[in-house]
Amino acid sequence: MPWIQLKLNATAANAEAIGDLLMEETGALSVTFLDAHDTPVFEPLPGETRLWGDTDVVGLYDAESDMDMVLSLLKHSPLLADDFACKVEQLEDKDWEREWMDNFHPMKFGTRLWICPSWREAPEPNAVNVLLDPGLAFGTGTHPTTSLCLEWLDSQDLTGKTVIDFGCGSGILAIAALKLGAAKVIGIDIDPQAIQASRDNAERNGVAERLELYLPQDQPENLQADVVVANILAGPLRELSPVIKSLVKDGGLLAISGVLESQAEDVASHYSDELTLDPIAAREEWCRISGQKG
Q1: Engineered SS bond to 122: which of 18, 129, 199, 259, CB 3.0-4.6 Å?
Q2: What is the DSSP annotation of 165-231?
Q3: Are residues 45 and 117 in the same domain?
Q4: What keywords were assigned to this record (predicted)?
Q5: What pLDDT was estimated at residue 140?
């Protein structure tokens, strides 16, 4: 069935209240928040709603909804000025999942690594191929932060190494490391859905027996690895830097991403006390920070 989308411009101060208004008073079926300046942002920390300075609040309505009544309700709300900016548009009926699947193609990273949707054939059967079904967890390889990490893994000799994927999401980095020769990978994530997605993708790739998965509260004590990767967010990378650094063995390697160029030097300063850092790698305003401990 078709849908109607209502988009309102808001601020970080009132966006969440406007979202509640759309859901509770106007009959919106769902509400999402979009950065009005198209700044890419990943999932928030537990219990946190991540909003931006200029935020679009987007409500989705049934096609039969009376949008004149919805706009009238909004005009009388103290949350909005009389001349508030909004846009109402009809969305065509599509199989959104099928459309996304049709546009997710195999991608090559580095010299030998391919990430292939599980519903497509690998273009180079003899290459290092990771079959991926992201499910509900983040990580497909399409975002610059993920591709920077995949290329870094492809450039390393992981033969026989133990790797930790801190914030494993879909398991894309963990499985790539195993396919590239790692003896064992330990995936850690705060989201049980990510743990399940990683487990499913590992089974699909025939590497589940070498992948250990933990929620943070369940991980073994004094955990360390030869190689650690963490593709999360700048805030957690700063706040959790003592934890992340402790996971790296002396002489071990670390790569972190999810960092904007404007944040890179500050984030790197939280790691330079224990690691010799490589030059920061950048792509499309995103960065990877890597180095060796000791």
Answers
A1: 129
A2: EES-TTSHHHHHHHHTT-SEEEEE-S-HHHHHHHHHHHHHTT-GGGEEEE-GGGSPTT--EEEEEEE
A3: no
A4: Cytoplasm, Methyltransferase, Ribonucleoprotein, Ribosomal protein, S-adenosyl-L-methionine, Transferase
A5: 55
Q: 113-125 burial string, b = 16+ CB within 10 Å, else e?
A: bbbbbeeeebeee
pLDDT at residue 137 is higher than 70 = no
Check whether residue 88 and residue 103 sit in a common domain: no
- Residue 56 pLDDT grade (very low, low, confident, very high; cuts 50, 70, 90): confident
Q: For residue range 6-52, what is the model confidence (pLDDT) as tens digits?
A: 998 888 778 888 989 999 899 999 888 876 554 444 444 444 444 44
* Domain final residue pick, 58, 93, 128: 93
Nearest to 169 by CA among 118, 231, 244, 260: 231
Number of structural domains (the chain) is: 2
Answer yes or no: do 143 and 279 share one domain: yes
103 shares its domain with 124 = yes
Contact 257, 237 (CB under 8 A): no
Q: Is 189 annotated as a binding-site member?
A: yes
State which residues form the domain around 289: 98-293
Residue 167 is assigned to a ligand binding site: yes
The pLDDT, as a whole number, for residue 133 is 66
Determine whether the annotation assigns residue 200 to a binding site. no
Half-sphere exposure of residue 138, counting CA atoms within 13 Å on the CB side?
A: 16
Q: Do residues 150 and 275 share a domain?
A: yes
**Angle between helical axes of 192-204 and 172-179 (0-180°, round to 10):** 30
Are both 36 and 85 inside the same structural domain? yes
Q: In this structure, are 18 and 117 located in the same domain?
A: no
pLDDT tens digits for range 198-257:
999 899 899 999 999 999 999 999 999 999 999 998 999 999 999 999 999 999 999 999
